[in-house]
């Protein structure tokens, strides 16, 4: 029987990165388009990646004392209007519900673009004493932002995410939470997505609407463009004052709570694709891969091959790994391409000769390295290869980030580096003036990504601002971004 | 230190069932009200019940070959209009988005009340051959129906649910799926919610908009009113024709697919409350209880008590159970009331005297029965008591259903039974005419709930319709409903 579809061709990554990306999301069966611009169908294979991300993060959140809740998806216009900066930031991009059935609503409702105001309204109801604090809430849901330009996973009008919202007695507690969640996000990206990130703080102009400070993790994609992969926000008592969320302290004084919020989204899937993928398709981090090992029987019509393949499937499954045996009648060649496209970390081949020698062949998706593995220690070898692949793709992404990180003293140098070496992160000093930030972006295309944390040692690369030459106040990472 | 809040009083269940229900959802911290009528906040304790329901059902779905996906929340008006019956059923109760930011949309979008048309649009894109079938998809999401009268969990404008949508090559396959999922729902209600249900088929007038046949599970609440707890729908090829979803069969003919859909929602939480709750609050089925065992140390200031309590907590946790130790400084009396209100199945008390005797006291939430349990076999005894409680509340709910199920021959008898014995299920024959169905409802308040399945033996209780006296075609279960 002929193969059910032809081997899928995709655009080369170096030829047209944007087209390569679109090819992958479609040909690896991650998404489908819907009739509403910017709203995508997340197909089973794409959604399974998201379920793995959810499972791992949800455990981390719960292990640190967070509880899940569900807030309504609708926000009355008057509620959204309560915090001035917040509404200014979000009003231009919300979807408005005006009718319920055939009736005109007395007040418009927006579909949540984020849920700060809903959590505030609820916190006002349930917080009264210091004994009620902290409140460490999280929700998994979809949100809507009416973007003009959209791309699957990276920027869509509706996307899935989690949003943590917390209330604390003191500023210190809220700042601790904001930084703790940033660390959790960064660890998760490194350990589970094998994607190195830089932790930093956003400049004033790039802060979340309503925040005192916004922290972020920034990753560098294969093409040298930055991806903001997650953010955490410290709100001070701004929302608490706007919503009148107070508690009576131990010495019986009425105090405002201090708040934080933090979120990551399906955008992370875009980050995985652009960090690890290659010209044959996806390369998935083992922790979130829907299938970690695909077993492909060779000469499966021969006696004993399928039986042995099923036995290996069972053994790998029993070891707690996600395994799939493809015993369909498609050719081995078709299967090889298919699971490469889908980024399955390990391919295990087993045929009559292997069985004779009590071994199998395992091929790594990232390096295509072949290993002959004795069946006696199959589970151990598979686990080891998965660990090595995870480490390998992390190091490759880190090497890309390092090779594409340039230290610059002035705008000319920035432009030279970017045109000679391609896009990347630029480390350069800044005076702190928004005018300079804007000018750098205008002249180089690279905006300020963040003021990196933990850069004390290497932070001071010049005394003067990369733009105006006046005294510099801090190091900034600049880059073009998704 | 005084207790952080007073012991909570709730309305008696027999005095005012509706008020009792509202008291429980608020005082057991299941929900909070939001600023939008009919949209509730699901608080951590309520959401944890839903997470347990999701976990158990999701595993059942995946074990039967279903895959999760995510469809957009917006449906363009023209797409909703494609299937005539479907739009007629849902148009009066959808929320319409008309603006994105400040821009008027060229076409209104409704917030999904259910996602048949979105799945159809997608299936048209991805199904072409018999090899692509069946498609067994499910999604967990929230949906919106602009109801006039709302009650937490039972009928809200936004609610959480899962919706399965499947496409099959043949009618037989689709009907099999529709009935299989009904069985899974019924088993789940019995085993995991300890809530007995009747499986049946809806009459023509009560079918889902667009379905050939709608199956349902109906439970009887403590007050004798019915709760539709889940539905599964067989669509035939109606949607396939409207959306032109075809596949080429093995002998290369173009055929329409046959479809099903099925869903349960947060309404199940309302069912749990009204099936098992009592005048002290919730009584939760062990399978979905966020806390299965609460440990309350007695005289916890005495040496060794808290240490022993923590040791027991660790042991119960290691046995895979959900346990909470309340070592707060609230009084034991306050704690007793609090965890009774929250419906925690087992309360474990441990004090100095118990420790001396190497035992503890375990109290069942449903019967308040006390058992002295030797610590040597603590895990085994806890597991046994949880099983017994699950069985006990199931049997109690079943006894309520049986005691409140009346066989009637005519409308007068129906009214007599309902007024003398209170609301309940009425088994009576029906001719099949909608006029009679309407008349029964008008004269008794009891609508047709379903034509029960598996009632061959006891099904024939009369030859004539309970309403018109003409020849009857089937047995119907009638009842007032939520």
Spell out the key features of this protein.
globular, 15 helices, five-stranded mixed β-sheet, homodimer, eleven-stranded mixed β-sheet, alpha+beta
Describe it.
- The structure is a homodimer of 482-residue chains.
- By secondary structure, chain A is an alpha+beta fold.
- The first copy, chain A, is built from 15 helices and 23 strands.
- Chain A has helices at residues 17-27, 44-63, 77-80, 84-90, 116-126, 171-191, 238-243, 267-276, 305-318, 332-341, 352-356, 378-403, 411-421, 434-444, 456-459, and strands at residues 31-33, 40-42, 67-68, 74-76, 95-100, 103-111, 135-144, 158-168, 198-201, 213-220, 226-236, 246-248, 254-256, 258-265, 293-297, 323-325, 346-350, 359-364, 370-374, 405-407, 425-430, 447-452, 474-479.
- Chain A has an 11-stranded mixed beta sheet, with helices on both faces. In chain A, strands 16-15-17-18-19 form a 5-stranded mixed beta sheet, with helices on both faces.
- In chain A, strand 20, helix 13 and strand 21 form a beta-alpha-beta unit.
- The radius of gyration of chain A is 25 Å and the shape is globular.
- The mean pLDDT of chain A is 95.
- At the A-B interface, strand 2, helix 2, strand 3, strand 4 and strand 5 of A face strand 2, helix 2, strand 3, strand 4 and strand 5 of B.
